[in-house]
Amino acid sequence: MKHLSLIDIKIDLPAIYVFSDSFVDNGNNKAILGNKDAIGGGYLPFGIDFDGKPTGRVTNGRIGVDFIATVAGLPYPPPIMGMSKIDRKRIQIGVNYASGSSGLLPQNGLFLHKNVINFFQQVDLFENTTMEDLKSSKFVLGDIYKVFQDVFEMPESYGFKDVNTSCCIDNNGTKIQVCALNIAPCKDRKTRVFFDPFHPSETMHFLWARRFLKDSSVCSPINLIQLMQA
Predict the structure, then answer these.
(1) Torsion-angle region of residue 73: left (phi > 0), alpha (psi -120 to 50) or beta?
(2) Rounded distance, CA 134 to CA 110, Å?
């Protein structure tokens, strides 16, 4: 999969801040809900390809934000809920506010959990983190749906063999619900689009991050590399 390489890119970015749901949550729900909650990715097989231990990422390994941070010359942004109050006041290289089951509407998370960090709370936490003037901010739109659509239409060209089936097994022995605790997932994880029925595999995370970084057809009006260099 040489066409997916990011080794030729290196940017010096001061910080990265992340807002979202379980798609890029890297430990907030794990800190809030504990290690036995699937939405928090707090147990194996989640993290099986991330040093063999669960990190709070709802996938088998790294998430797209991790790859973007690496290209930006930064460490993976830490989950805000895993930081002490003192550390929250010293944030310099960014932080991850994403929380599984959250959404633009405050009631979204109530369908699954009461304690998730909804989007407005994530923004409030961000405002408490930084007092910088953001009037000159530049924004781009990443079309994640287009990335998935392209893969579904031509999976082989992206190195995928299965675009439909979850890699992990649920408590009923099927692949239609959240991953069961400590049951080994499929072995061909690198060729699967989905790790569980709702979240992409590390390979798919790598793909969308790579395309957002380099491809202005899915990240516009400029791609992330161009944004970082602007």
Answers:
(1) left
(2) 31
Residue 34 CA to residue 40 CA, distance in Å, equals 7
Reported as a single tens digit per residue, the pLDDT across 7-33 is: 666 688 889 999 888 999 999 989 988
Delimit the domains of the chain by residue range: 2-229
Q: Which of 50, 99, 53 is nearest to 202 (CA)?
A: 50
| Residue 80 predicted with pLDDT over 80 | yes
Residue reference for tokens 């994403």: 98
In angstroms, the Cα distances linking 35 to 170, 174, 177, 202 are: 17, 22, 18, 20
Query: pTM value?
Result: 0.86
Number of C-beta neighbours around residue 47 at 10 A: 22
d(CA 50, CA 53): 6
Structure tokens at 46: 């989640």
Taking the CA atoms of 41, 152, 160 and 188 in sequence, report the sign of the dihedral they define. Answer: positive
